Amino acid sequence: MKDCITCMRMVKSFLMLLRKKSETLYMHSIYTGNTAGMIAAALEFEPDQMRDVQTAGFLHDIGKLCLPDGLLLKDSNLTSEEFGLIKTHSKVGSDILRGVFKNIPIYILYHHEAYDGSGYPEGLKSSNIPIPAKVLGIADRYTALISQRSYRAAYSRRDALREVEKDIKGFFNGNSKTIEKVLLSLSEPTEQLPPDDLPLKRGASKELPVCLQDASEFIRGRMSPLE
Ligand SMILES: [Fe+2]
Q1: Ligand 1 centroid from CA 89, angstroms
Q2: Which CATH superfamily is domain 4-219 in?
Q3: Which residues surround ligand 1, an ion (CB under 5 A)?
Q4: Ligand 1: distance of its center to the CA of 197 in Å?
């Protein structure tokens, strides 16, 4: 990301669009970005890549803005046709951002791929999925689990970790050190989550937009505590 100030302004604008559409979607985006940044930091990504992964987390569901409102706000009992429409969001989001960012659209395109090839949009096997997209997918799933939904309570961090552990092991098959780092980064105590500006400050001199700093205030306290 070359012109960082301009790009971060665009990120802020996209986030505001998400917030206009759905507070839940906005919060999920903020939290996914921060969690993806934490995992990337734990895996010692280069600063630029760490920032790209975090930004991809903030924008990973931007394609959902193109879904009908009724479908976007419906979070259970989807028909197969509706689920088919939802599944278009990773490609649509990637297309929207293709002219703005270099790597982020690729990470977003593949954030719903699964290690066993059962994901979408291309059904890639683990070895063909870019590592930043794996990080993004793990962060997306984990943060969704520990957040409350209208149709279920938030998972505890411990239960959510159990849920995503299989994915992490599948994605980083055979690399026990990497698996351990990812699991450890997700099991940080609540008060250290989310470190909104940690990956950016650690890796680069650019600061997060004010809207992202503000967002942490209401995200804190809505996440389930570590049991
Ligand atoms: Fe998604």
Answers
A1: 7
A2: Hypothetical protein af1432 (1.10.3210.10)
A3: 61
A4: 23
Q: Where along the chain do its domains lie?
A: 4-219
pLDDT for 41 = 92
pLDDT digits (tens, 9 = 90+) for 177-187: 999 999 999 98
Question: In 3-state terms, the chain is what percent helix, strand and coil (to 5)?
Answer: 65, 0, 35
90 CA from centroid of ligand 1 (Å): 6
Q: Which two tokens stand for residue 39?
A: 């995992």
Q: How far apart are CA 182 and CA 187, in angstroms?
A: 9
Please report, for residues 15, 16, 138, the alpha-carbon distance to residue 110 in angstroms, rounded to integers and kept in the order given.
20, 24, 12
Q: Which residue has the tokens 């090839």?
A: 117
Token couple for 73: 């706000």
